[in-house]
């Protein structure tokens, strides 16, 4: 049975792996956001704004999931399964 520290380390490693795999998508949105404001540039910039917003939202959600997992790990007697439907 892994210790709490090992569980936290694994969770942090998983989060870091997800962030690393997601980073190229964020960089694409950054490049799109720097596009020339010419005729097509307006659309590209708008798509970049949407993508950047979605990427930020994704990171915030990921951070919340990690925080919840950490709190669950620290709470004695709590089940790791959810009963939400």
Describe, in plain words, how this protein is organized in 3D.
78% of the residues lie in helices and 0% in strands. With 85 residues, the chain is mostly helical. The chain has one domain. The relative contact order is 0.12.
Any key phrases for this structure?
mainly alpha, 85 residues, single chain, 2 helices, 0% strand
* pLDDT averaged residue by residue: 78
End-to-end Cα distance, whole Å, is 29 Å
Work out the strand percent: under 5%
Largest sheet: none
Return the domain count. Answer: 1
Structural class: mainly alpha
Instruction: Bin the helical content.
Output: over 70%
Summarize the structure.
The protein is mainly alpha-helical. It has two helices and no strands.
Topology:
Blueprint (H helix, E strand, L loop, with lengths): L3 H30 L5 H36 L11
Helix pairs in contact: 1-2
């Amino acid at each position: 049975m892994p210790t709490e520290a090992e569980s936290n380390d694994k969770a942090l490693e998983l989060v870091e792996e997800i962030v690393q795999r997601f980073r190229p998508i964020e960089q694409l949105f950054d490049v799109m956001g720097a596009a020339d404001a010419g005729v097509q540039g307006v659309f590209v910039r708008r798509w970049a704004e949407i993508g950047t917003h979605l990427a930020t939202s994704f990171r915030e959600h990921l951070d919340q999931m990690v925080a919840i997992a950490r709190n669950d790990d620290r709470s004695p007697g709590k089940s790791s399964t959810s009963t939400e439907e």
